[in-house]
Queue: 2 jobs
Job 1
Amino acid sequence: MVQLLRLIVIIAIVWALLQLARRGLERLRQAQAKSSRKRSRRGKPAIGDMVQCAFCGTHIPQADAIRAGDRYYCQQKHLQADRQPKD
Ligand SMILES: [Zn+2]
């Protein structure tokens, strides 16, 4: 009889541990999904987002470009040079 009780207690403990492990894994998976979603939102734009410098024609990622209205520049110097009247 004591052995049967001990078996029941062991089964109950194992069951409780399995439940805890399952819940822990679920939480871990949710946290990973959340962080990967955040990462993709924060990530740099795709390589497709390239723009051309309006002054020298160099192609640069839009994230690194200097924007002036609807024009993009690879560096501040080119923005200023393009704004200066040409003679
Ligand atoms: Zn340029």
Job 2
Amino acid sequence: MNNVEEYIDYQDLLKNSNIPKFLEKKLAKDHFLIIKSFPLELDVLKNFMKDFTKNKDVSELLLKRVKSYKIPSLDRNGYEILSSTYHKFLLHTDSYFLKKPHRIISLLCYKNSVEGGETLVAPLKDILDKTPSCLINKLQKISAFKNFNRPVLSFDSEERIYFNLREIKQQIEKKIFSLSEEELETLVEFDKVLERIALRVKLTPGDLIIFHNHKCLHGRNGFNKNSDRELVRCKIM
Ligand SMILES: O=C(O)CCC(=O)C(=O)O
Ligand SMILES: [Fe+2]
């Protein structure tokens, strides 16, 4: 697994005359980016994300602390919400079960764990480069989303990927939708490829990572149970 090597310094970024345009260009090319030494004030983060996405409606900006709790929160189906645990979080699309998942996700690191807790990223351009073409073909034909036709991989109006194996398996268990055994095997095989090709970065306080959530999968490694690791996540349509 390769480490991420490119960062943008917050102070350098501020010298830019059109920050939103600069960031959009970067996301279009690389599908994610990391800003170093970002201020740890929530208002600065909120305004930055709003300016960046030209989002004037504050209610569409979802801010949430991603923190490991001693007792994990449960979702409405009784499954542990992984962001509230210390377990590994496989590579995934955020808000996978919205018909149209949020476009931009950011994570601002307040505190990381001493061991583990590395962020994993798989940009679509790497996925397309490194996944065997027979698997790429199959993924375009598998729709793992309720009753709608929304293939894992598509190249229609723009290239995009929607994938969250854990949620897919849970929905199968809950009989919300079904996949053939062969389709599920394909997804498990793809997950192994992702594990191999993902880039890794250990965020430190003040690191702000921004993903294009339709063109980049992300995840994180597990970490120590007693860690007080804490990030603030921001989702924007
Ligand atoms: O804990 C992390 O680093 C990432 C968490 C995450 O991906 C999420 O909450 O959706
Ligand atoms: Fe996530």
